[in-house]
Amino acid sequence: MRTKASQEEFLQQFESIIKGVQDSLLKQEITMKKKQAEVAEKESDYTLVIEDQRKYFKLVKDFQEECNRNEALAQKVESLK
Question: Under a CB-based contact definition with an 8 Å cutoff, are residues 51 and 43 in contact?
Fold first, then answer.
């Protein structure tokens, strides 16, 4: 650090380190954005699956009610015979 040349060399090394850290940060930010996009896509897919599941359960319930109704009507028809 006593000579001008050693000071300049130190500054160049320090600038190199800073550039390396900045490059690493940029890569990590890009990776993070990709991961966030993947998470958003997965959340969207999950929401669609949940909606389908709700529709399925509603249809099963409606079907069961119709089966019960059919059974009741069949019993009425049988009692009328």
Answer: no
Distance CA 21, CA 19 (A): 5
pTM for this prediction: 0.64
- DSSP state letter for 78: H
80 close to 74: Cβ distance less than 8 angstroms: no
Q: How far apart, in whole angstroms, are the C-alpha atoms of residue 53 and residue 40?
A: 20
Q: Which two tokens stand for residue 50?
A: 């949940």
Q: What are the Cα distances from residue 46, in Å, to 37, 38, 43?
A: 14, 12, 5
- Block means of pLDDT (10 residues each) for the chain, 81 residues, are 88 96 98 98 98 98 98 94 84
How many residues would you count in the chain?
Answer: 81
